[in-house]
What we know:
Blueprint: H1 2-16, H2 21-31, H3 35-47, H4 54-66, H5 75-91, H6 94-100, H7 106-127, H8 130-139, H9 146-164, H10 167-176, H11 183-201, H12 204-213, H13 220-238, H14 241-250, H15 257-275, H16 278-287, H17 294-312, H18 315-324, H19 331-340, H20 343-360, H21 362-373, E1 378-382, E2 388-395, E3 398-406, E4 414-421, E5 424-433, E6 439-446, E7 456-462, E8 468-475, E9 478-487, E10 493-500, E11 509-516, E12 522-528, E13 534-543, E14 546-554, E15 557-565, E16 571-580
Helix pairs in contact: 1-2, 1-7, 2-3, 2-4, 3-4, 4-5, 5-7, 8-9, 9-10, 10-11, 11-12, 12-13, 13-14, 14-15, 15-16, 16-17, 17-18, 18-19
Amino acid sequence: xxxxxxxxxxxxxxxxxxxxxxxxxxxxxxxxxxxxxxxxxxxxxxxxxxxxxxxxxxxxxxxxxxxxxxxxxxxxxxxxxxxxxxxxxxxxxxxxxxxxxxxxxxxxxxxxxxxxxxxxxxxxxxxxxxxxxxxxxxxxxxxxxxxxxxxxxxxxxxxxxxxxxxxxxxxxxxxxxxxxxxxxxxxxxxxxxxxxxxxxxxxxxxxxxxxxxxxxxxxxxxxxxxxxxxxxxxxxxxxxxxxxxxxxxxxxxxxxxxxxxxxxxxxxxxxxxxxxxxxxxxxxxxxxxxxxxxxxxxxxxxxxxxxxxxxxxxxxxxxxxxxxxxxxxxxxxxxxxxxxxxxxxxxxxxxxxxxxxxxxxxxxxxxxxxxxxxxxxxxxxxxxxxxxxxxxxxxxxxxxxxxxxxxxxxxxxxxxxxxxxxxxxxxxxxxxxxxxxxxxxxxxxxxxxxxxxxxxxxxxxxxxxxxxxxxxxxxxxxxxxxxxxxxxxxxxxxxxxxxxxxxxxxxxxxxxxxxxxxxxxxxxxxxxxxxxxxxxxxxxxxxxxxxxxxxxxxxxxxxxxxxxxxxxxxxxxxxxxxxxxxx
Length: 583
C-alpha cells in the first residue's frame, strides 16, 4: 500500500500545478483519507462532459477502492477502475491525450495498474476460487497478468479434475480448456481410467472396446493379452468346439494355439464317438485331417462300416465296403465273403430262364409291351398323403380289390384292410398299434373261413431299441409261421428268416435280404432258400426322394409297378404291368 500512496502524492503534486480544480480537489480529499468525499467528486467528474479529465477520475477511483481504510475497499473494483483509466486514455485523440496529461501522469498510471493487478491476482491465488478467477479473466481482459492468470485458472481446474479423478471430470476439463497444457495429461488419465474400468469388468468385450478407442495406448498390448487370457479360459471352461475355433481364428499367433487346437480335436473326436456313426467319423476325418485321433477315428469308422456290411450280408454290401474302404483291415475278409456269393451267376441263370420263357411266349411279351402303354394288370390308388387307399388286380374277367383305411387322430397308422373279389367281401385285416406307431397285431378274418381262406393273426415283437425282432403267425393254437428279423443301426430291416409250418407251402424256409443305398433308401430285395438259391429279386428305382418304379422278377416272369406324382410331389397313382412267363 505504501507504493500506492507514493503514486498518489506524485499525481497530486503534478495536479496542483495544473487546471482542473475538481480533480485536484478530489485527490486532496483522498490524501486526507476522506475517501467518501473523494469518490463523490470523482463520480461527478465522470458525469461531466470533460472527457479529458475522465482518465484521472477513473484513476482516482482506483486509488480510492484500493485503500484498506476505505469501508468500501474492493481490490477488484480498484483494478477495474485502473483498467478503465488506461482504456479511456487510450481512446482519446493525440490532442486530447496531450490535454489529459495536465490531469494525470500516464506513466504513473501504468505503474499503479501493474501494482494493483499484481496485488489482486496474488489475492486470487491465495483464495484459489476458480469462479473469481474466471470473473477476472472475463471482465479484465488486457490486464497485465491476464495471460498468467489463464495458466493459473487452467492449473486450478486441473487440480480440481484430479481431485475428482473420474473419466467425466477429465473429459469436461478437455472440453472447457482445450488449449491447456494439461489436456494431454487429462487424455492420459482418461485412458488409464478406462483401462482400469475394463480390468474391473474383466470382460473381453470391454477390453476390445478399449483397444478400438485407444489402439496406440500404452495399455493396448496388455488389453490384448487380457482378451486372449479371458477367451482361453472361457474356451476351456465351456469345452466347446465353437469357442475353440473362435480362439484359434482370433489368436493365430498365440502361444496357447497348439494347446487349444489339441483340445478342439479331442472334443470333436469325443462328439464323433458319442454319435458313433459312420457319418460322424467321416466328418471328423474330413474336418480334422491332422488330428492325433485321426487314425483311431478311421479305425472306428471302418469297424462300423464292416458291422453294417456283415448285418446286411449281401454281395453288394461287401462290394461297397471294399470300394469305400480299400485300406481297411477288414477289406481282405470282405473280399472273401464277396467271393462266397455267387449272386451274379445265379442272376444270369435266372435271366436265362426268363429269356427262354420269353422266347416261348413271344405273344405274351408283345402283349406285355402293349399293356405297359394301355392296359395295366394291376392299379394302385393313393390319398393326398401318399398312402395306399386301394389296389386292384385284373385276370381275365376277374377283379380283386384291396381297400385300406387309417386310424383317425394318429398320423399314418394303419386302421384296416378289406379284400373284395368281384365286389364280394372275402377277407378283412385289422391292426393294433402302440403309441410309437409300431404295429403289435394284424388280424386276418375271412368272410367264409375254410380251406381257401383261413383266419389268423400276426403278432409283432420288438427289441429294446424298438426295432422289429420277430413276427409270429398264429391260427387258434397253431403256429403257422415264425419270422426272425434283423435290423441295422437305423432300425431298417436287412433280413427276414421265415420258418413256415405248412406242409403244403411252396417253401418251408425262406430268407429275405434287403439292401439300401447311401441315402438309406431300399434299392434291392432278394429272396433265397436256405441253400442260397435265388427265388425272387425286387429292385427299386428312385429319382431323388421319389420312388419311380418297382421291378419284381422270378423264374415265372416279371412285374413292374410305376408311380405317378402330382404337382405337390405326392404320389397320385401307381400302375402295375406284368410280363408273364409259364403260367
